[in-house]
Specification:
707 residues; alpha+beta; four-stranded antiparallel β-sheet; 12 helices; 39 strands; globular
C-alpha cells in the first residue's frame, strides 16, 4: 500500500505540547493557533531551500553572536560570537592584532589576549548558512572544534542539528516530555470510574485492609453475600484474568499470518496467511481447538488483506489487493469454489469496471472489509481512496464514497445493530464518520483528527459511540462520537500540514520527531507498542471475558500490549519469547525480511504480532504473527491466564508445536526423538508452564507492506 507522501510541511511556530490532551476547537468552531516563537523556541528546523533558510535564520535586524575560545585557554572547542549591525560592519580582536572592516577596506592593530569578536555583514551570515559550509564548521565529530550559534538570548542550536538533507522533519530538544499525553490519563480515569469500561475493585477485606484474593472472590460469588455482590465479584474476577506470555499451543504456518479472529460467540476462529489461504478452526472448547477447513483466494495479489465472518458464522468474506471479495461457506462439508463479489460493479449507479480476474488486474485493491450487523452488507476500504458498501442480495455495490485523500486502510460499522454509521481510517491521517441517512451532499458527518501519520486499523466498540484506532505515529487513540470535529471545521484544515514523510515499512520512528496534533479531539492516547512494517491492528477487549476493561494491540517488537483505559499498561503477552526458536531453520521457506534501516537479514528469529483476538468467554488471547527465521513464516499462538501457576496439569502440554491442521509435525523440531520424548522438549516446556482455569458460566453471563 502506498505510503503517505504529503507536500512540504508549512513552516511555522510549533503547537502547544499540551494541546493533545484537550479539544482544540471550541463550540464556535474557531481554529486553534500555533504558539508564538517565544513560547516554543526549542524547535529546530532544517530549511528545505537556501531562500527559506535565509529568511528563517538570518534576519538583518537580528544579532547573532559567536565567540572564539582557543584550546590553550582550557576550552574543549571553539565558540564564535557574531554580531550584525547597521553601522560599522565588523571588528575582530585577538592575540594577533585588531582588525576593523568598513566596506571593502581593512585596518589591523596589535592587541593581546581575550576572546575573538567579529562583526560581519548579513551576506556573510547567509553564506555561513549554506549546508555545505555548515558541515565544514560543524566538525567536532571528526575531532575538530565544535561551533555553537547563539540566536537571541538563551537559545542554543547545537551543530548536530545541521545534518544536511537527511534531516527533513522538525525535531524537539531532548527532554521535552510535554509533547506526549500524560499517563495515567485523567479522561481515561473518568471512563474507568464510570462503569462503561469495567468495574473498579473497591472491595477489600475489612479486617486485613488488603486486596481481596481470587479465592475469596470466588467464595463470595458462590455465597452471594451482600446485595449485588455476586455479580460485581464475577465482573471483577473476569476482568482480572489477563493471559500470560506462556503459549498453550504454537500453530506454525509456512507463510506469514496477517490476521486472525474469534467469532462473536467464540465457537469459531479463522486465520489468514500470505499463501492466499484462510484456515478455519472449531473453538467451541477454547482450550482444545479442532481443525475445520481451508478456503483459497484464487489469483490473489501479494496476500489476503482481510477477512470477516457473518454474524451467523455461516459465511466468510475475504479479500486481496483486488476489487474482488471471495465469499465462502464455513460448512466443512461444502467444498465448492467461493462466490466472487465484484465491488467495482456499481450496476446502474456508475460505470461498470469489467477488469477483475479476467483482465489480469483490478482497478483498486481492498485493504479492509466488515460484515454489517444484520449480515446483508459488506463495507470495504480500498486503494482508490474510497469506501464501498456491497449489497449481498443484489450482488453489486450500492454506495461508493470517494471521501479520502489516500488509501483507506480500515473500515467498520459504528453500531452492531445498525448499518447506518460507518467509520473509515486512511493514510491521510483522518478517521471519517459517515451517516448513510444524510449523505445527499456526499459529505461526512464528522471527522476525528489527532493522528499525525496514517491509520492502520479502526475498531468500533459496537455501541455507536466509542471508536479505537491505531496509527503509524506509534499511538493508539480512543474517540467519542460526541466529540468529533464538525465537517465545516475539518474542511478548513489541511491534514498534510501535521504529518511527515515517515515510511513505517522501512524506518524506525524517532520520538524526537513527534509533534502533538494541534487539533487532537481524541479522549485517550495509548503509547508503548510499535506500529511498524505492516498494518498492525488494535481492538476493544470483550465484555464477557474482560468486562470491557481493556484495549489491546499487536506490536512490531513481538508482543501484544494490553492497556487500561487510563493509558497505563495492564499486561503484555510476549509472543516472541514464547515461540523463540520453536522451529528449525528451513532455507526453502526464507523470504526477504526488511530491517527498519533498509537492510536485509535472514539469520535472526524475529516476531511481529500483526493481529490478536481475545476470546469472548474465556481468558485466552490468540495472536497471529509474522514469526520465524528472517520473519518469513507465521504462527498463531494461544495464550491463557494461569494466575502465576508453575505446573501444568492439563492436556495437551504447554508449548505444543503443531502444523496448520493442528497435527504433530516432526519437522518442527531440530531432533524429533529427543525433542518429543527427551530432555530438549521437557526443557522447553519447563520454561513455559502454566495452569489452565476454564471460564465458568457465571463469568460468561457477566458480559461481552504495506501489505
Amino acid at each position: 500500500m502506498a505510503n503517505l507522501n504529503p507536500s512540504d510541511t508549512v513552516r511555522g511556530d510549533s503547537p502547544d505540547p499540551s494541546s493533545h490532551a484537550t479539544n482544540i476547537y471550541d463550540a464556535s468552531g474557531a481554529e486553534g493557533e500555533w504558539l508564538d516563537e517565544t513560547e516554543d523556541d526549542d524547535d529546530i528546523f532544517e530549511p528545505t531551500t537556501d531562500e527559506s533558510e535565509d529568511a528563517e535564520f538570518f534576519d538583518p535586524s537580528e544579532d547573532v553572536e559567536a565567540v572564539f575560545h582557543d584550546a590553550e585557554d582550557g576550552m574543549s572547542g571553539v565558540e564564535i560570537e557574531f554580531s550584525v549591525g547597521n553601522g560599522e560592519i565588523g571588528t575582530q580582536d585577538d592575540d594577533r592584532g585588531t582588525e576593523t572592516v568598513t566596506g571593502d577596506s581593512r585596518t589591523q592593530s596589535t592587541a593581546t589576549g581575550g576572546p575573538s569578536r567579529i562583526q560581519v555583514p548579513t551576506q556573510i551570515m547567509q553564506l555561513l548558512g549554506h549546508a555545505g559550509l555548515r558541515r565544514i564548521f560543524a566538525n567536532h565529530r571528526a575531532g575538530g572544534s565544535g561551533i555553537t550559534l547563539q540566536l537571541d538570548e538563551g537559545t542554543d542550536v547545537q551543530d548536530d542539528s545541521f545534518r544536511g538533507p537527511e534531516t527533513r522533519r522538525r525535531r524537539r530538544a531532548k527532554g521535552s516530555s510535554r509533547r506526549f499525553p500524560p499517563v495515567p490519563s485523567e479522561e481515561g480515569k473518568k471512563l474507568m470510574d464510570g462503569g462503561v469500561f469495567g468495574s473498579n475493585e473497591y472491595y477489600r477485606d475489612k479486617t486485613k485492609k488488603s486486596n481481596t484474593r481470587l479465592a475469596r472472590k470466588l467464595m463470595s460469588r458462590e455465597l452471594g453475600t451482600g446485595k449485588g455482590l455476586s455479580s460485581r465479584t464475577a465482573s471483577a474476577i473476569s476482568q482480572g484474568m489477563i493471559p500470560s506470555s506462556n503459549a498453550d499451543t504454537i500453530i506454525h504456518y509456512n507463510s506469514r499470518c496477517y490476521s486472525g479472529q474469534f467469532s462473536e460467540d467464540g465457537n469459531f476462529f479463522f486465520s489468514c496467511a500470505q499463501d492466499f489461504k484462510v484456515r478455519m478452526y472449531d473453538t467451541s472448547n477454547p482450550y482444545n481447538w479442532k481443525y475445520y477447513k481451508t478456503v483459497v483466494y484464487p489469483y490473489g495479489q501479494w496476500t489476503i488483506t482481510d477477512a470477516s465472518l457473518s454474524p451467523d458464522n455461516k459465511w466468510l468474506a475475504y479479500s486481496s489487493i483486488r476489487s474482488i471479495v471471495c465469499l465462502a461457506p464455513t460448512d466443512p462439508n461444502s467444498s465448492g469454489e467461493p462466490f466472487l463479489l465484484d465491488f467495482s460493479d456499481m450496476g446502474g449507479r456508475g460505470t461498470r469496471r469489467v477488469r477483475g480476474f479476467n483482465g489480469g488486474f483490478s482497478h483498486f485493491g481492498i485493504w479492509s472489509i466488515r460484515f454489517s450487523g444484520d449480515g446483508r452488507e459488506i463495507v470495504a476500504g480500498t486503494s482508490d481512496h474510497s469506501v464501498y458498501v456491497y449489497d449481498l442480495e443484489t450482488r453489486q455495490s450500492i454506495l461508493s464514497i470517494p471521501g479520502h485523500n489516500d488509501d483507506v486502510n480500515a473500515v467498520c460499522f459504528g453500531d452492531s445493530s445498525s448499518p447506518h454509521i460507518l467509520y473509515s481510517g486512511s493514510d491521510d491521517t483522518t478517521i471519517k464518520v459517515w451517516d448513510r441517512r444524510s449523505m445527499g451532499d456526499s459529505r461526512e458527518a464528522g471527522v476525528f483528527m489527532g493522528h499525525t501519520e496514517g491509520l492502520t486499523y479502526v475498531d468500533s466498540k459496537g455501541d455507536g459511540r466509542y471508536v479505537l484506532s491505531n496509527g503509524k505515529d506509534q499511538t493508539m487513540k480512543l474517540w467519542d462520537l460526541r466529540k468529533m470535529m464538525p465537517t465545516e471545521k475539518a474542511s478548513r484544515l489541511d491534514p498534510s500540514r501535521f504529518t511527515s514523510s515517515f515510511d513505517y515499512r522501512f524506518m524506525t520512528y524517532d520520538e524526537k520527531d513527534y509533534e502533538p496534533h494541534p487539533h487532537d479531539c481524541s479522549l485517550v492516547t495509548f503509547r508503548g507498542h510499535r506500529v511498524l512494517k505492516t498494518l498492525i491492528r488494535c481492538h476493544f477487549s470483550p465484555s464477557g471475558s474482560t468486562n470491557s476493561r481493556y484495549v489491546y494491540s499487536g506490536s512490531e517488537d513481538g508482543s501484544v500490549y494490553i492497556y487500561n483505559m487510563d493509558a497505563t499498561l495492564a499486561g503484555k503477552v510476549n509472543v516472541n519469547q514464547a515461540t523463540h526458536h520453536s522451529r528449525p531453520r528451513d532455507p526453502d521457506l526464507y523470504a526477504s525480511h526488511y530491517e527498519p534501516d533498509g537492510g536485509r537479514s535472514r539469520d535472526a528469529w524475529k516476531t511481529c504480532v500483526r493481529d490478536a483476538s481475545w476470546h469472548p468467554n474465556a481468558p485466552i488471547i490468540a495472536a497471529t504473527s509474522w514469526n520465524g527465521w528472517g520473519m518469513s513464516t507465521g504462527t498463531c499462538t494461544t495464550h491463557s491466564w494461569n494466575d502465576g501457576a508453575e505446573d501444568d496439569e492439563g492436556e495437551p502440554k504447554m508449548g505444543l508445536r503443531v502444523d496448520q491442521r493442528l497435527e504433530m509435525d516432526d519437522d518442527l523440531y531440530d531432533n524429533p526423538r529427543s525433542s518429543r520424548n527427551g530432555r530438549l522438549m521437557s526443557h522447553y516446556r519447563s520454561r513455559l508452564r502454566s495452569h489452565r482455569v476454564a471460564a465458568t458460566n457465571e463469568d460468561a453471563d457477566n458480559d461481552e507492506n504495506h501489505w
